[in-house]
TrEMBL record:
This is DUF1853 domain-containing protein. InterPro entries: DUF1853. It comes from Arenibacter nanhaiticus. Pfam families: DUF1853 (PF08907).
């Protein structure tokens, strides 16, 4: 297996965008091709949360692309010394001679087909966030921040005119459909994002799961493709750990190793 640091970059790069083109007027950023044979990543700080690590991953990957130049990232926007938010990235497309404001998002969503509205079916593993709420925040806060007097001032300090910017998102996601309804489809979204299932603890306890081996990845491992070079546990040995997660109302990602099959990535939910 490639070194752990590089695997985070490859995992991020290979995660598909949640949609292609535009969704509700939000333009998806087209990621440049990266040749990993020549890519030498800088170490990622281990004390960063996953979201901040992935900002560093995005920065290094775009920085390595010959077609783009990063002009600004994590630019604070303040009013009377009070933070109103940050502008994630401003990049120059050297081929098209464009300036692009990019908001970066990387999510793990479980699909709940019991919710009638498709965009609201994508929910966080613990049901505390959703795609719909994130989309509304992008439309109603993150993009308008650029147009606020404080946003215009922050840009002018960088020598960038607000009216010269196009607005894109780099919105990558891994989606998990219900184990009990595997045929679930999402017409508005990229089907390549569906990579696994979610199921209840009761299903995980059942006889059909007892013969396989398991690994619970740390959250910083969630973006990477599952691989065999970890310490695997039997169903019997891992059951108490999973039960603890459930008692604490925490859903968890789990890798499943089956004989002669690719390693699978799923979620066990507490709800």
């Amino acid at each position: 297996m490639e070194d752990k640091n590089l695997s985070r970059f490859i995992g991020f790069y290979e995660t598909p965008p949640l949609w292609i083109g535009q969704l509700n007027g939000i333009q998806q950023f087209v990621f440049p091709e990266i040749d990993f044979k020549d890519f030498k990543p800088q170490p990622l700080p281990t004390n960063l949360r996953l979201g901040h690590q992935l900002e560093q991953v995005f920065f290094q990957l775009i920085n390595s692309a010959a077609t783009y130049r990063i002009l600004a990232h994590n630019t604070p926007v303040r009013k009377n010394k009070i933070s109103l938010g940050e502008i994630d990235f401003i990049v120059e497309d050297l081929t098209a001679n464009l300036l692009i404001h990019i908001e970066l998002t990387y999510k793990f969503y479980l699909v709940d087909p019991n919710i009638p509205e498709e965009q609201q079916q994508l929910i966080g593993p613990n049901r505390r966030d959703s795609f719909f709420r994130k989309k509304e925040k992008i439309i109603n806060h993150q993009i308008p921040l650029i147009y606020s007097p404080e946003g215009i001032l922050a840009l002018s300090d960088l020598g960038i005119a607000q009216e010269a910017l196009q607005h894109h998102v780099c919105f990558k996601a891994q989606l998990f459909v219900p184990f009990t309804n595997k045929s679930t489809t999402l017409p508005s979204f990229n089907p390549k994002c569906i990579i696994g299932y979610w199921f209840s603890f009761q299903i995980f306890e059942s006889e059909g799961f007892q013969e396989f081996e398991y690994y619970i990845p740390a959250k910083k491992e969630w973006p990477i493709p599952p691989h065999k070079d970890v310490i695997w546990s039997s169903h019997f040995d891992i059951l108490p750990t999973v039960r603890n997660y459930m008692k604490n109302e925490q859903s968890l990602m789990i890798w499943i190793k089956k004989p002669l099959r690719p390693i699978e990535k799923h979620f066990i939910v507490w709800w």
